[in-house]
Description:
Oligomer: single chain
Largest sheet: 7 strands, mixed
Amino acid sequence: MFFDRPEAGNKSGDIAILVHIDFPEGDNREDPNEFKELVLSAGGRPVEFITGSRKAPDPKTFVGKGKVEEIKAMAEAHQADIILFNHALTPSQERNLEEALEFRVLDRTGLILDIFALRARTHEGKLQVELAQLQHQTTRLIRGWTHLERQQGGIGSRGAGESQLETDRRLVATRETLIRNRLKKVRSQREQGRRARKRSEVPTIALVGYTNAGKSTLFNALTNAKVFAADQLFATLDPTMRRLKVMDVGEVVLADTVGFIRHLPHKLVEAFRATLQETTEANLLLHVIDSASDERDHNIQQVELVLDEIEASEVPQLKVYNKIDLLEHAEPRIDRDEHGTPIAVWLSAQAKVGFELLTQAISELVAEELFQKTIQLTPADSRLRALLYDQAAVAEETFAENGDNLLRLRLQLDDFKQLLAKTGTRADRFIPVELEYWQK
Length: 440
């Protein structure tokens, strides 16, 4: 028999039975510890963790008849509200499990979607989550809802003979279309912001990384922002941007993005592609890594897989090994390749150590051409002198014998050219054809 679902919204502290099955599938395995963190992040109360091993999933119930009986006994003993699986179940498997267990069943994808719905704050984030949920639920409308199989009837609903299930599917499709149209408008506005940043040539640096690696803590410490940060999975969902001043670069836009996770549901990747576009169009990615995690190397691999899926793997990347305060004898440092280019920075966002090394590495990677020489300005160049000081481009000022100003400059070549054009100053006064600039 099918069970009747509880009313939506009664989700506070659901008593949960957790189910994890080991398969001989190598990198496709799921992490039981991460599963527990997901359940806690969703507000669940795990009371039993049932494990097992199989060579392959059972096509009908995923776990097999004997394990179903064990799960049902545990659920009844604890008077559970929900049974959670650390795996992606097919719609038929969920339906068969709910029929056999007579308890509500949710798979890993549904659990992650539930957390995303809990975390979404912005209008775009909420729309994206709802779209992903509708796409996930479309093939699951029949499970657990016995009334959907009945024909509509009663006053005001007679006529075409459309079943309740068909009506629900049509309403879901209509809602999906409405959300997609709304997202188009929001994405159009976001795209205008991207074009404005490109016109002003402000570099964008995106924070990416496995969820709970400390991205938001680092973001807050660097920009004095107040993005929600907590020791839980998907604490931050919606992208946040702030301006940050970097030596030799000037202002950059720092973007904090959603954390990644192993086997991130494809529906979520698709739904959040517009948000993750900040990542694909960034000048530099800061891949924040929990250096103290036992799963560090595997988490790095999972982030790389998602970056490849959203076509961001070609964006220049700097690895940021965070939480070195949890490691023994670890000190802030910059790792470089054989050419001397920064490839990794070790720091602690919580302890606020190693930040100067991070900004140094960012400067070296983003500021490619620097104008670094001493120029001579006359009293008629007072406006240019003032603008150079506004840009913090003057490293030292002295005076020539005739009273002219001698300014030792250090700024991006393109920025210097813009200042010259702004003041109507001929560029060839200071920038020869054979420019000797410092190439980082």
